[in-house]
Protein: Ppx/GppA family phosphatase
Amino acid sequence: MTVAAVDCGTNSIRLLITRRDDDGSLTEVTRENTIVRLGQGVDETGRFNPEAIERTRQALAGYTERMRAEGVQRVRMVATSATRDASNREDFFAVTRELLDQIQPGAQAEVISGEEEAHLSFRGATADIDPARGRFCVIDLGGGSTEFVMNQGARSTQMGCVRITERFMRTDPPTAQETESARAYIRDRIAEAAEVVPFAQARTFVGCAGTFTTLSALAQNLDSYDPTRIHMSEIPFERMREVTADLRARTASQRLEYGPMHPGRADVIGSGSTVVEEMMDAFAREAGATSFIISEKDILDGIVSGLLTA
Structure:
């Protein structure tokens, strides 16, 4: 059985193909990430930009070709924050129906709730962590939304690196006033999450998705992006703060001087860094936390697990 998971968020579209062999063992065939910025302008206009839809179509067409080549039998594609907010999302769905029907008749993207997104991310992100380190709090920091999830509760919040950049931190690099306005908004969203997710009960905080994995690569002084060194890395808050402060002070072009930096993330990671800084303040205050574990596994792995057990 070969299955594929596709996650289309505000900033990127990602693919995971996994094969289950006859002996039950799992092989990761490919894991791909393409920055398409589907959520470009959605926070302001409430609609998808046609150019953003076309960028996404091209990326998904490439993924579909890879799925056909690998003999994928089942596929699930989920769409998250940007698609929940866009009034013309049917244009996007039509594109996904046309392409995914080639893999599994009737397949198309489905919009999932923030809560389901959170639970799928939790399932994937904690798969390789020693259960003795629980209780886990998983944070999935995306382009348009950020999910906080524990076994005791989950909350999706309307903050992400693209949304914060477009709404508050528009100057390159952001001004002190822009950053402080963003911080106030971020603190309010974290407080919303804390009403449902008991941070004080968490023992281990797990960060997943591109902002966290890139920060881990930079914190480790990697010359290039290396998933094997990023996955399950543990980054002390003190070191993380050094990295986030440096990134926010730089322009997007200066951030590209770092080898692990993806070109499609350079202009928004300053906002993502600000979100992470406010999280560290909250987690240290509420739970005495001093570090993040960074997971390369996330919602894609949660989706694949569901496909293989359904």
